[in-house]
Design brief:
By secondary structure, the chain is an all-alpha fold. It is about 65% helix and about 0% strand. It has one domain. The protein contains three helices and no strands. The termini are far apart.
Length: about 120
């Protein structure tokens, strides 16, 4: 990864990386929602609440399945090919380390003169 993050050529393939990241985050959140709803279902006593939670649990499971299938079809997730998934995880970890080493926030952060003057400016 090039350190010159301001050069547009270095933005090549970034949308695809973002898509995979967003999809994985959505998948994990869907899984967490299913877990939370399942726990709530076991804790509820009201038949109406249990019916409501059961319906939401089924919707959450269906959403998790749809996201998983999308990610598998796009080759962003390999749940049945662990060596392939390991390669993707390594690539993601390496990209994260490289981004962490970039100087995204220069020492000089003074923005004076970049904005319109305010009534307080004299």
């Amino acid at each position: 990864m090039n350190q010159d993050y301001l050069d547009p050529i270095n933005a090549l393939h970034v949308p695809e990386l973002a898509d995979t990241t967003f999809a994985m985050d959505l998948l994990l959140r869907a899984k967490e929602c299913v877990r939370i709803i399942a726990v709530a279902l076991t804790e509820s006593a009201s038949p109406d609440v249990r019916t409501f939670l059961r319906k939401n649990l089924m919707q959450g499971i269906a959403m998790h399945q749809e996201i998983t299938e999308l990610m598998i079809n796009k080759k962003w997730f390999h749940p049945y090919e662990l060596s392939e998934q390991y390669k993707l995880d390594q690539l993601s970890a390496n990209n994260t380390l490289l981004i962490g080493k970039m100087n995204l926030f220069p020492v000089e952060t003074n923005r004076k003169g970049m904005f319109d003057r305010t009534p307080d400016d004299h």
